[in-house]
Amino acid sequence: ALPIWEYGLNQSPLIFHADFIKTDAYGNTNLDSVYNIADSTYNTLWEKAIFANDGNLVITGWHGNVADSILNMWILKTDTSGNILWSNYVGDSILSTSAYCIAKTWDGGYILGGGTVTAPPRYGIIIKTDANGQQLWERLLINNNNSGDVLNSIAATPDSGFVFTGIGGSLGNILVRFVRIDKNGTLLKDTLYNFS
């Protein structure tokens, strides 16, 4: 039986801490670790985890300071016991960002999708990293709807590119967003669909 990992948040009043839970195949807890920054003004949340080629986990989410409302995308690698092997904050240099999805790339690195978390308008964002989680490039996806865009799902395409889905549109008219990029981050398609 393969072990199962769960990750997410452990909420105390107004503060989020990342939680790493490892279970056996029957759901019995083998490990439960809360990752708490020493200064309680910081929030952390892990959104998505994937297995790296070496069998360890690569996790993404966000880390931020409650006092100044600055959030950064967070990518980290842990072993299967939850020990952090490396950790990096990535994202836009000006806007607060959060990652909601992650995938491995053709060159051994990772690609993250998410959104800015500032007041509207919010933008979708794509970050490419190397195999050690160091940011290589960023694509900020701006549309003309003054919307609350976010990319929360990702899939690889046969040509080593990626498609993302998420939400977009204006407040009160939320639409499905579809984005396709090639392996170098060139935008091939960015479309909003209305299914109402």
What is the gist of this entry?
The chain is mainly β and 196 residues long. The protein contains no helices and 15 strands.
Characterize the structure shown.
Helices cover 0% and strands 61% of the residues. The protein is mainly beta and 196 residues long. The strands form 4 sheets. The chain has a 4-stranded antiparallel beta sheet, with no helix packed on it. It has a 4-stranded antiparallel beta sheet with strand order 8-9-10-11, with no helix packed on it. The protein has a 4-stranded antiparallel beta sheet with strand order 12-13-14-15, with no helix packed on it. A hairpin with a 2-residue loop joins β13 and β14. It starts with a strand and ends with a strand.
